[in-house]
Amino acid sequence: MQAPLLQLRTINKYYGRSHILKDISFDIMDGEFLTLLGPSGCGKTTILRCIAGLEDINSGDILLKGRSIKDLAPNKRNVNTVFQNYALFPHLNVYDNVAYGPRVKKSMSEKELRKRVADVMELVQMSGYEERMPHQLSGGQRQRIAIARALINEPDILLLDEPLGALDLKLRKYMQTELAQLQKQTKTTFVYVTHDQEEALNMSDRIVVISEGELQQMGSPREIYNTPANLFVADFIGDRNIKKVQLLEKNQEYCKVMLGRSIIDIKCSECVEGPYSTGETTILAIHMDKMRISCDEIPNSLSGEVRLIHYAGSQIRTEVDVDGEIITVVEYQRNNCDYEIGDKVSVSWEESGAVLLPMEEDAGESNA
Amino acid sequence: MNTKPKRFRIFYLSLFFVILYIPVLSVILYSFNQSPSTAQWTGFTMDWYKDLFQDRVIVEAFKISILVAVSTSILSAILGTAAAIGTLNVTKRMEKTINGVMILPLLVPEVALGVSLLLFFTALKLPFGYLTLVLSHSLFCVPYVYIMVQLRLKEIDKSIIEAAKDLGAAKWQIIKTIILPLIMPSILTASLLAVAISLDDVVISTYMAGPTSTTLPVHVFSMMRVGVTPKINALCTLILVGTFVIVGFSQFISKKSNQKESI
Amino acid sequence: MLKTKKIKQNAPVVPVLIWIGFLVGVPLIYVLALSFLSRDHLGNVVLEFTLDNYKRVVDPVYLKVFYSSFLLAALTGLITLLIGYPVAYFTANLESKKRSLAIILIILPFWISSLLRTYGWIILLGNTGLINNMLLKLNIIQQPLNMMYHFGTVLVGTTYMLIPFMIIAVFNSVGKLDRSLLEASYDLGASKWKTFFNITLPLTVPGIAGGFTLVFIPSLGMYFISDLLGGGMTIFLGNVINTQATRGRNKPLAAAFSVGMIVLVLIVLFIYSRVIRDKKEGLFL
Q: What is the reported pLDDT for B66?
């Protein structure tokens, strides 16, 4: 197996008394698109800044290509950042902004530089904008320049701090595709910070989920989406119905659980391996959009009464009362069943959409 | 809204501004009066202005004033800017100390400051004149530069500095390529204001001036002590116009730089 | 290791601190030392400790000087407050275009030579001045009024010179007022006057205190105003220091008076810091 490009080893970071990063360890492979995902204030940006060298770490180590860089100043690390607000130099035109890195490092002649700038400008599709000042550019254009300014240095890793946060929804979707393409094209390792799960799931090779300074789960988008490691990830990624259930029986393939008065089977291969035993309370989490409503009784389903139907654009959100528990179902079209409020219906789900998770102390909160 | 209080407000403000500007306007007006006395208006003349340019003492004092003002301004710009940039990286406690020390020259009443400098420089046997004038003027100009430049520095987005660091710039490169260009308008504005402040100082200059080097305000003051003459009016009017040109120019610079930065 | 890092961090600002320390601190300490020294019969300073200078400072004749200086500064503070507060308050409530104009008009005098502004009053108030001319022409008076060279004339001068400081200080304070507080007060049925005295005034105390300090300190030392407008009829601290240091050639006495003046300033600053304690406001920033 190939050695990791960057290794974070039990990093701890304090601001005064508050513990911002708690024993963060993970590896980043060469050429991958890794996303740090978590709610705002979880420490993901701090991790990025520690890699860039803009923050010191209190303990642990950061290895780039096997060599410790934790005591190197940011200008000595071959890592570049695209800042959240782009941080273009307002007094320099686009060309001088992009040329800034090679110039301060005196790494190439002006002639060479001209060619390099032209190359990266073409890469980000901004050729012809060299003479513009930053304030004459739109948000999306500034973003491209910020990327070009970082890429021209051919960094080992490009760090992106919520770069799409300031853009409007339409542009954001478009830039997602572009960024992913750019990453494949340049074969640069991207470490991308966002709080937007959709961005993370769309673009990344791997996702690291962080909450309150702790690493919650690391894996491919599919793993993160389908098999959350804990309640926090289950709650944070995707829209799920999260309910307490009684575990009645457990065998190799299925767990039998009780929700309200209904007894249902959950496929065990999709459950997290847990030390839970029969009779215990566990958490059942089912993706709302992997659920279906049928008018007829079907096996292994929950039956209840339709409480509310809400049409939100292309989605239909239906709330079903199952023995006092509200289950929300998101559908994109009505299946074979025209139900109204007050009708008795059955709610079923794709097997891959449901997981069982261990109970945690103060389950309402993000983690234990 | 009810108009009565509103009308009273406008009346009060107008009255205040009229009184605020009447003394100034009368000085300007009577610089064009033919009669040497303010007792009556006898007709328009520019003679008093012509008189000024023939008065060698005034011309000499003017030259010294300008020389002192420009030197002070340059010295203060360098010191004030260095202090402001230096403050970027210091500890919180140090910053407080610096802010306190910077305000000191503005807090001590001018007479006390002037006299203490007079006694001190006498003890040091410094020659009074150009050197002592520049030293003392820089004392109350440095804080202005410091305060104005620091305000601008605080406006600079921290991530811009971080971006420069991230792109490989060393500390001196950041100062040279990012910080200085960004604060240059403020430095220019502050230096121009320093020129204006230095040109206007009477109290401290009185003590710092040498036997052969009097600044313009010191000379004007001694003229005023003797009595009223339209020549003083003319001189004051010229100083006023000069100051306004400088201040106006500095405002123009700072406005223009503000427009440029709409990020 | 932490300590060396701190020293390195603070190093760049040290030269400027030394610069200012050298030009403000050292002279002030020198003056303090000088105020305890005596002079020989020729007027030269001798290295001999004495309290004579301070004895003279507390001499009734000179105490009166302190008293008039204090009175002048305090009255200047009070009058600039009474006239300036409404100006600041009304200006803050103007619509934005008129407000900017008013602010420019308030700040502009800072850039007009203080000598010119003092001289303007000589032209207005002098025996052959504009006001007397006008009153004589209108036959309201037969003899010119003697308006120059009084304590009041000096007070007019200092007030006129320093009122922009007061207005700016109060204006900043009024600008920071939370509008919703005033609205809440009206909403609760308080009248305009009641709201003003119960809410606006107490909340602008930092501005008032700042303005008062900014006016009080310079008015102690603007001796050219009392020279030109007071004509030496009332003697103020500034004049005494000025005369003793230059023409009187009694440097230790001038030093003792300077120390006295600075003590007065320190007292005012101390009161100011007490008034604004826990309120996040600074004198200049």
A: 94
Chain C residues touching residue B23 (CB < 8 angstroms):
117, 119-121, 123-124, 160
C-alpha distance from residue A97 to each of A94, A100, A140, A298, B171 (Å): 5, 5, 16, 63, 18
Q: Helix B130-155 crosses helix B180-200 at what angle (to 10 degrees)? A: 140
By the CB < 8 Å criterion, does C36 face chain B?
no
Record the pTM.
0.81
Asked if A148 and A113 touch (Cβ cutoff 8 Å), the reply is no
Which tokens belong to C155? Answer: 């007070």
Give me the domains of chain B, ranges plus CATH numbers: 52-262 (1.10.3720.10)
Contacts of B167 in chain A (CB under 8 A): 75, 80, 100-101, 104, 149-150, 153
For B167, the closest of A73, A133, A149 (CB atoms) is A149
Output the pLDDT for position A364.
Answer: 44
**How high is the pLDDT of residue B215?**
92
In what helix (H) or strand (E) does residue A12 lie, and over which residues does it extend? strand A6-15
Structure tokens at C262: 């600075």
CA distance B216 to B229: 16
What gap in Å lies between CA A124 and CA C177, rounded to an integer? 48
Q: In terms of CA atoms, which chain B residue is nearest residue A50?
A: B166
CB contact under 8 A, B111 and C119: no
Joined tokens for residue A243: 């309910």
| Percent of chain B with pLDDT strictly greater than 90 | 49
Give the side-chain half-sphere CA count within 13 A for B220.
Answer: 32
Contact (Cβ atoms closer than 8 angstroms) between residue B189 and residue B232: no
- Report the mean per-residue pLDDT for chain A: 88
Helix axes C151-175, B3-30, angle to 10 degrees: 130
Q: How far apart are CA A209 and CA A212, in angstroms?
A: 10
Residue A60 Rama label (left phi>0; alpha psi -120 to 50; beta): left
Top-confidence range, A324-338, C57-71, C235-249: C57-71
As a whole number, mean pLDDT of residues C25-54 equals 84
| Cα A155 to Cα A77: distance, rounded to the nearest angstrom | 9
Name the closest residue on chain C to residue B247, using Cα atoms.
C111
Distance from CA of B156 to the nearest CA of C (A): 17
**Ordered domains of chain A (ranges, CATH):** 6-226 (3.40.50.300), 239-357 (2.40.50.140)
Give, as one character, the DSSP assignment of residue B33.
Answer: B
pLDDT, residue B262, reads 45
Asked whether residue A268 carries a pLDDT value surpassing 60, the answer given is yes
Q: What is the mean pLDDT of residues A71-91?
A: 92
Instruction: Note the CATH architecture for domain C60-284.
Output: Orthogonal Bundle (1.10)
- The residue assigned the tokens 């039990």 is A10
Per residue in B165-211, pLDDT tens? Answer: 999 999 899 999 999 999 999 999 899 989 988 988 999 999 998 88
Confidence of residue C243 (pLDDT cuts 50, 70, 90): confident
Q: Cβ distance A192 to A326 under 8 Å?
A: no
Of B90, B196, B240, nearest to C13 by CB-CB distance is B90
Residue C113 has pLDDT above 50, yes or no: yes
Top residue of A45, A49, A51, A89 to mutate, by most chain B CBs within 10 Å, is: A89
Q: What is the mean pLDDT of residues B239-258?
A: 85
DSSP single-letter state for residue C146: -
CB contact under 8 A, B263 and A135: yes
Give C245's contacts in chain B (Cβ within 8 Å): 115, 118-119, 207
Please, do chains B and C touch (3+ CB pairs < 8 Å)?
A: yes
Cβ neighbours, 10 Å, residue B261: 15
Contact residues, chain B, for A134 at CB < 8 Å: 263
- Spatial separation of the C-alpha atoms in residues C217 and B111, rounded to whole Å: 11
